[in-house]
Design a protein that fits this description.
The chain is α/β, with parallel strands linked by helices. Helix content is 33%, strand content 18%. Helix 6 runs parallel beside helix 7 and helix 16 packs antiparallel against helix 17. The termini are far apart.
């Protein structure tokens, strides 16, 4: 096995493959490695001559004729789930002889290729017949135990028929592995030192009773492993709620699939569940306060307008998940939206990652603004250091997201890299001329996050001075007629501590610094209500 990432030096990968002088090369293709694979494989074919190249993976779930005709260095592609067929292919290769004329894949289901006469052999996607009987991936000598996490399927398939998802291509039944078998596999995974497991089930709570059994298995690993699961928030019943509420804090990381909060859009996607139920489910997950909850939106879905997406982003911020992920629709091979792209008015990139470019309801420029909005959410809402203040601003000013997105359009914001301080300064500078009422809160956040006290956002920071430490009579030296309340952080006898404050609207923010403990950030902080009383 030779592996790498799209960022690996291609010369290193090619050199590694050449050392083996292989007769066959197999690789798995999906939208984010497809271009890299093509770059590597065409060069390996030129260097190795008669080598046979066979590909599989999600990239080949649709019509593959154009790909095979345009990439003559690829001999065949496999469509579907390959675990049961791949060993048969290897057996055919081993038993092959120079006199054996048919190619080793010709007698097997799922393989598409160009025949010697130039015609295209098309076939249906293959589904594994006995999923629970498959050898677990972690038993393979090729399994990578060096990563900090392991991906684990407890089931395969999906009851949902989402038209943007490869799992919705065909109505193959959901196939499950017994939870007790999963328990035994998790024991081995834990013994290998893995502390994070990402469950690959498309909809974890599709079968509520089974979901509860799995959650009880996960409970037995509390404090040892954290589990990532994908939950459909519209389908959380009371049994699952009761189980989730009883689980220990930090056991789960939950991805809550939202996509859109417009029922017409969701129905057009062929997705189950009403948006009102999805909102209720997401609110419940967030209210538990014990798991990290992420929610997602997809720009470019048929019927989804830019205005509606902005409203949905505001609404999700109001609910308050830990992260909001906004992605553009990827029109994937084999999916309904790819096959019906002309009828549904979806214009997408013809090359990976097949991102949506235009629809009947959203323009190219608006989709670009959606990606700016996505980076805005990633920069300030998804960053826990700014989330609370950013959320308060959006809730107070409903047009804030739209106006900030418009301001950043055409500025290079999407491609520019920002440090934590530079993105914090960008937000402050924007609000300085448009939302001056929030500058006090931004300044308090600036100081609390340990950013430079020499820059403008910290200019309103004032040292706390005690006129008479014995009776704790404190005052503002610039407004001596306006007494301050008692400093809640004061340690009068300890000179190592320095105190500062910021007055912001009806709040007073107190900061305590001790450079022996932390040279940049305050070691204590308090925010109290403050009413000026002249």
């Amino acid at each position: 096995m030779v592996s790498g990432t799209p960022k690996t030096d291609p010369a290193l990968i090619i050199s590694s493959v050449l050392k083996f002088r292989p007769h066959y090369i197999f690789a798995t293709a999906w939208l984010f490695n497809m271009e890299t694979l093509q770059f590597l494989l065409c060069r390996l074919k030129a260097l190795l001559g008669p080598v046979r190249i066979i590909l599989g993976g999600p990239e080949f779930l649709g019509n593959n004729e154009a790909f095979l005709r345009g990439n003559g260095f690829v001999d065949s592609v496999f469509k579907g789930e390959g675990e049961e067929i791949f060993p048969l292919l290897i057996r055919n290769i081993i038993e092959d002889s120079p006199q054996h004329s048919p190619e080793p894949w010709e007698s097997l289901p799922g393989f598409e290729y160009l025949r010697p006469d130039g015609s295209y052999r098309k076939c249906a996607a293959v589904a594994v017949r006995d999923f629970p009987a498959l050898v677990p991936p972690e038993k393979s000598r090729f399994f990578n135990w060096e990563k900090s996490f392991v991906q684990l399927e407890t089931s395969r398939g999906c009851f949902n028929t989402c038209r943007f998802c490869v799992s919705g291509i065909c109505n193959t039944p959901v196939r499950n592995i017994d939870p007790e078998i999963i328990r035994q596999r998790l024991k081995k995974i834990y013994r290998k030192g893995i502390r994070e497991v990402r469950i690959l089930d498309r909809t974890f709570n599709a079968q509520p009773l089974r979901a509860v059994r799995l959650l009880e298995v996960f409970r037995s690993f509390a404090g040892k492993i954290r589990f990532h699961i994908e939950i459909h928030p519209a389908l959380i019943n009371q049994t699952i709620k009761d189980t989730l509420s009883s689980l220990p804090e930090g056991l789960l990381h939950i991805e809550a699939g939202i996509q859109s909060l417009n029922d017409r859009v969701i129905e057009g996607c062929g997705r189950a569940g009403k948006t009102a139920c999805a909102v209720e489910g997401l609110e419940y997950l967030v209210s538990l306060g014990k798991f990290e909850v992420h929610a997602d939106l997809i720009a470019g879905l048929p019927g989804y307008t830019y205005k509606q997406l902005l409203m949905d982003a505001n609404r999700l911020i109001g609910i308050g998940p830990h992260e909001i992920q906004l992605e553009s629709l990827k029109v994937l091979p084999g999916t309904y939206f790819r096959e019906k792209s002309r009828e549904t008015g979806l214009i997408h990139s013809p090359v990976p990652p097949y991102e949506i470019l235009n629809t009947k309801h959203i323009t190219y420029d608006q989709l670009n603004r959606c990606m700016i909005l996505s980076k805005i959410l990633e920069s300030w809402y998804n960053d826990p250091r700014w989330r609370k203040i950013f959320r308060e601003i959006v809730l107070e000013y409903p047009d804030f997201l739209r106006e900030l997105t418009e301001f950043l359009s055409g500025t290079g914001f999407l491609t520019r890299l920002y440090s934590f301080e530079s993105k914090s300064e960008l937000l402050y500078d924007y609000c300085k001329t448009r939302y001056p009422s929030v500058l006090g809160a931004l300044s308090a956040g600036w100081v609390l996050n340990g950013l430079s006290l020499k820059k403008e956002p910290a200019a309103i920071l004032r040292p706390w001075i005690s006129r008479c430490p014995e009776n704790a009579s404190h005052y503002n030296p610039e407004e001596p007629e306006c007494p301050l309340p008692d400093n809640p952080l004061s340690r009068k006898a300890d000179g190592r501590y320095r105190y500062y404050y910021i007055i912001e609207n009806e709040n007073i923010h107190w900061f305590c610094f001790n450079k022996e403990i932390d040279r940049r950030r305050p070691v204590e902080y308090a925010c109290l209500k403050y009413v000026r009383n002249h």
